[in-house]
């Protein structure tokens, strides 16, 4: 009896080879799962595919380039130099006493991770329509692979940040503290929020293509509403009160406070970011699962 794994277009129908426990059954029909379900058990069964997608995303980044993986370092370094020149030297923005190179490199490293997770996940249905229309697998595999591949890229760029941090630490110009231990939590919240917003946009862009044009513009605006190139302490009180509603702001301030010794660390605001990300993921899951059932007809 032939297995139907990876061939059924209906997620409610899963085929498998008969085993001693399952008797003679080679086909299991399950009811449609809840819109709130991420079907993580099914994702785990397809973990090999998740690994292959993650590896594909990493290799595709530097495939057919002359400098190859060096682009992982070149992009944040050149962006940092431009920010130092434009925002540090010309605009004269304060960096809370932190060396400008370190201040901007820290912000760019964390921002790149969130922005890449958001922007690439937001077009996952459109970019993978040729695969989705041919074979069944948990659609969540595609956005998860983007988050994981960007996590590898973030780790590489974070190592670059640590190298600069060590240099300035030896020079006595920065003072990291125990708040840096929160970094894994910050990255997890950032990944959750990027995944949630990306899933939400990917569901909406299948029907409303105008959002694709708005995406990059919107992400750029969001960066200016987040303390990436400036510290929150330099904002006027009225502006700071508005920016406090941005769930990304506490993540950047906490990361900067832990690693560089200047910034804000407020557990209440960090809890707000975590709650916002969890609710956003819940809402995005409902929309994503709803659109997933008819996405091929729309795309």
UniProtKB/TrEMBL annotation:
<dbReference type="GO" id="GO:0140359">
    <property type="term" value="F:ABC-type transporter activity"/>
</dbReference>
<dbReference type="InterPro" id="IPR013525">
    <property type="entry name" value="ABC2_TM"/>
</dbReference>
<comment type="similarity">
    <text>Belongs to the ABC-2 integral membrane protein family.</text>
</comment>
<protein>
    <recommendedName>
        <fullName>Transport permease protein</fullName>
    </recommendedName>
</protein>
<keyword id="KW-1133">Transmembrane helix</keyword>
<dbReference type="InterPro" id="IPR047817">
    <property type="entry name" value="ABC2_TM_bact-type"/>
</dbReference>
<keyword id="KW-0472">Membrane</keyword>
<dbReference type="GO" id="GO:0015920">
    <property type="term" value="P:lipopolysaccharide transport"/>
</dbReference>
<feature type="transmembrane region" description="Helical">
    <location>
        <begin position="270"/>
        <end position="291"/>
    </location>
</feature>
<dbReference type="GO" id="GO:0043190">
    <property type="term" value="C:ATP-binding cassette (ABC) transporter complex"/>
</dbReference>
<feature type="transmembrane region" description="Helical">
    <location>
        <begin position="181"/>
        <end position="204"/>
    </location>
</feature>
<keyword id="KW-0997">Cell inner membrane</keyword>
<dbReference type="Pfam" id="PF01061">
    <property type="entry name" value="ABC2_membrane"/>
</dbReference>
<feature type="domain" description="ABC transmembrane type-2">
    <location>
        <begin position="67"/>
        <end position="291"/>
    </location>
</feature>
<feature type="transmembrane region" description="Helical">
    <location>
        <begin position="136"/>
        <end position="169"/>
    </location>
</feature>
<feature type="transmembrane region" description="Helical">
    <location>
        <begin position="70"/>
        <end position="91"/>
    </location>
</feature>
<keyword id="KW-0812">Transmembrane</keyword>
<keyword id="KW-1003">Cell membrane</keyword>
<dbReference type="InterPro" id="IPR000412">
    <property type="entry name" value="ABC_2_transport"/>
</dbReference>
<feature type="transmembrane region" description="Helical">
    <location>
        <begin position="97"/>
        <end position="115"/>
    </location>
</feature>
<feature type="transmembrane region" description="Helical">
    <location>
        <begin position="211"/>
        <end position="230"/>
    </location>
</feature>
<keyword id="KW-0813">Transport</keyword>
